[in-house]
Amino acid sequence: MATRATSAGGKPPVYKIVMLGDSGVGKTSLVTRLTNSSNKVLNDDISVTPATMGIEFETQMMDTPEGKVKAQIWDMEGSERFARVLMPTYCRKAKGIILVYDITSLKSFESLSERWMTQLNDHLSSGDELAKLLVGNKSDLDAEREVPRAMAEAFCTQYGLEMLETSTKPTCDAGNVPQSFRKMIGIIHERALAASSTNSRGGIHSINGAASHNTVRLDEKEGTVNCDTMAACGCY
Questions:
Q1: How far is Cα 163 from Cα 141, in angstroms, rounded to an integer?
Q2: Would residue 1 count as lying in a domain?
Q3: Is the distance from CB of 46 to CB of 137 less than 8 angstroms?
Q4: 209 or 32, which is more confident
C-alpha cells in the first residue's frame, strides 16, 4: 500500500474540492478563513465577505499522516442561473463536495435537497465517487437557529454524508473551519491511497504551478465560460 502523499515526482497530490450552497450561506468566508488565517484582515468580521461573482479557487497545503497534500478549493456563485450553466464544468475532476447551509435559514437547508443534490446528481456519472461533507455555517448564531441539528443529521443519513457545524467568527471557540476541510481531505486522501494500493498508476495526480487565486467569469454571451482559464489550472 502507498504510504506517501507525494507523487513520483516528489510533488504533493492535488485534490479538487468544490463548495455548493445558496448565496449568503458563507462559502466564501469559510474558504477565506482557511486560506488566509495569517492575514490581519481576519481580525475583522469576515462574515461580510463580498459575494462571489463567477467561480474562484484557492489552494492550501494540508497535512495528512502520510505527508502534505494540496487542496484546491473551488467556490461558485450561488445564483440558480449561474450554477445550472456551469455545474458540469465546476464539478469536473472534483474529488470532494462540501455542501453548505446557514443554520439560521431553513430555506438554505431545504435548497440542498430541492436544488443542489438534484443538480449534482444530474451531472455526475454513475462511476463518480465523491467524498461529501455537510457544513452548517454560522453556529455562533445558535439563538437564531432555524435548522435543528437533528434535521441535518437525518439529511446526512439519507445521502450518506458526514457533518460539521462551523462559524467564521474569529472569536468563536467552536469555529471548526480548519477541521471541516481537514475532515474532507482525510476522506479523499484515504480513498486515493486505497485506489493506489490496487492500481499503481491511479488515484493521485499533481498539478504544476497552480495559482493561489483565480477567477472564472461568464463571458458576455450568456451561458459561456472562459475555458482557457479553466484549462490553465488543469481542472477543465
A1: 18
A2: no
A3: no
A4: 32
71 beta partners? 15, 60
Q: Say if 66 falls within a structural domain.
A: yes
Q: For 15-34, what is the mean pLDDT?
A: 88
Q: Is the pTM of this model over 0.70?
A: yes
H/E stretch holding 87 reads: helix 80-91
- Amino acid, res. 99: L
Is there a domain that residue 7 lies in? no
Average pLDDT over residues 78-105: 82
Report the distance separating Cα 199 and Cα 194, nearest Å: 9
Distance, CA of 75 to CA of 83 (rounded, Å): 11
Q: Identify the domain containing residue 25 by its residue range.
A: 14-232
In a domain, 3, yes or no: no
Under 8 Å between Cβ of 70 and 63 = no
Spell out the SS3 assignment of the chain: CCCCCCCCCCCCCEEEEEEECCCCCCHHHHHHHHHCCCCHHHHCCHHHCCCCCCEEEEEEEEEECCEEEEEEEEEECCCHHHHHHHHHHHHCCCCEEEEEEECCCHHHHHHHHHHHHHHHHHHCCCCCCCEEEEEEECHHHHHHCCCCHHHHHHHHHHHCCEEEECCCCCCCCCCCHHHHHHHHHHHHHHHHHHHHHHCCCCCCCCCCCCCCEEEECECCCCCCECHHHHHHCCCC
Instruction: Tally the domains of the chain.
Output: 1
